[in-house]
């Protein structure tokens, strides 16, 4: 069952064009010209209940615009958009009871009040029964380790503690959809791992649909099984993380330690990229042979002591996708 359905959605902004200089200012009094900027262009996709989806793209790709349309803040210029069976901007209040939203740069907490007071206010705003409120609060407090700072004012919390509280508050009313925008931005490694594990648990156990926008690809790998990638308002990829890795992550880095420096080595399938004497690093591109066969051939000819193989991480794969998109855009402009 689809919980979000997007069909041919476009969002265009009409911007007032300013003329330069003093004469331009005078001209603006009598002449109005506008330019149209398309932030989202004819995008279609659907998200099922319980799915965890990463919504990715470089800065200015239209990610935030789409999130705002799905939450009812913005109205699409054209196309059809339904969330929980409703048109978001028409049923914004009704949908908000079924949604949780966390923006990394904006807070929904009361700065001078203790954390517990913010939770209590949330309970009254959503008119939560005491039993439901306590059950959900205990669940979040335990998994996010919040008990030590529940009585502290929000302004005294660290960034990691505040983000844990933000995520907990967004889940107290048991939303069916959780929108997350950069939830781990600025956090240390331990805080990031704790939040990722919690979100994975919420998705798997409570079947909350998660839509995550982030520039940290490890968030996507840890939480989401599916990625939607947009670029300049266009949808350029919609599929599994593993499929994209198989498509673009065709390189492996092979580091080999020798008993002594064997000098220059030339082996079919392996390209030397770093030579430190007894330790050499090669780049292997997938072809008809395997990396293990290449290393085995090398070991049969040279005094190999140890070997390690690293596959491309998701950051490298996404970087390669963006580079391909930029290259296609440059070629299109040259032809045009």
Automatic annotation (TrEMBL):
What is a GO molecular function of this protein?
A: ATP binding
> What is the official name of this protein in its record?
ATP-binding cassette domain-containing protein
Q: Which PROSITE patterns match?
A: ABC_TRANSPORTER_1, ABC_TRANSPORTER_2
Q: Which SMART domains match?
A: AAA
| Organism (species) | Paenibacillus lemnae
Q: Record's superkingdom?
A: Bacteria
Give a yes or no for keyword Transport in this entry.
yes
* UniProt keyword ATP-binding present: yes
Q: Which residues form the ABC transporter domain?
A: 4-257
Q: What Pfam families does this protein map onto? A: ABC_tran (PF00005)
């Amino acid at each position: 069952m689809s919980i979000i359905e997007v069909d041919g959605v476009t969002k265009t902004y009409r911007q007032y064009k300013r003329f330069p200089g003093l004469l331009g200012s005078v001209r603006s009094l009598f002449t109005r010209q506008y330019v149209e900027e398309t932030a989202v262009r004819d995008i279609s996709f659907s998200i099922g209940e319980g799915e965890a989806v990463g919504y990715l793209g470089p800065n200015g790709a239209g990610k935030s615009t789409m999130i705002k349309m799905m939450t009812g803040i913005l109205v699409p210029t054209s196309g059809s958009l339904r969330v929980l069976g409703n048109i978001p901007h028409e049923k914004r209040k009704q949908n908000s009871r079924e949604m949780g939203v966390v923006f990394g740069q904006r807070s929904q907490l009361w700065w001078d009040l203790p954390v517990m007071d913010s939770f209590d206010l949330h309970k009254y705003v959503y008119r939560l029964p005491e039993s439901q409120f306590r059950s959900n609060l205990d669940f979040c407090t335990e998994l996010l380790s919040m008990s030590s700072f529940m009585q502290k004012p929000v302004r005294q919390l660290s960034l990691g503690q505040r983000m844990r509280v933000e995520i907990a508050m967004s889940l107290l009313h048991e939303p069916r959809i959780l929108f997350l925008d950069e939830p781990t931005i600025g956090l240390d490694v331990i805080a990031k791992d704790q939040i990722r594990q919690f979100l994975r648990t919420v998705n798997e156990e409570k079947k909350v649909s998660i839509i995550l926008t982030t520039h940290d690809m490890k968030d996507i790998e840890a939480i989401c099984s599916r990625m939607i990638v947009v670029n300049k308002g266009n949808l350029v990829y919609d599929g599994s993380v593993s499929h994209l890795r198989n498509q673009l992550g065709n390189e492996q880095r092979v580091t080999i330690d020798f008993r002594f420096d064997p000098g220059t080595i030339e082996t079919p399938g392996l390209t030397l990229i770093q030579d430190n004497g007894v330790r050499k690093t090669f780049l292997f591109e997938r072809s008809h042979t395997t990396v293990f066969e290449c290393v085995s051939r090398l070991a049969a000819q040279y005094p190999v002591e140890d070997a390690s193989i690293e596959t491309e991480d998701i950051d490298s794969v996404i970087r390669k996708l963006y580079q391909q998109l930029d290259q296609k855009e440059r070629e299109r402009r040259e032809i045009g």
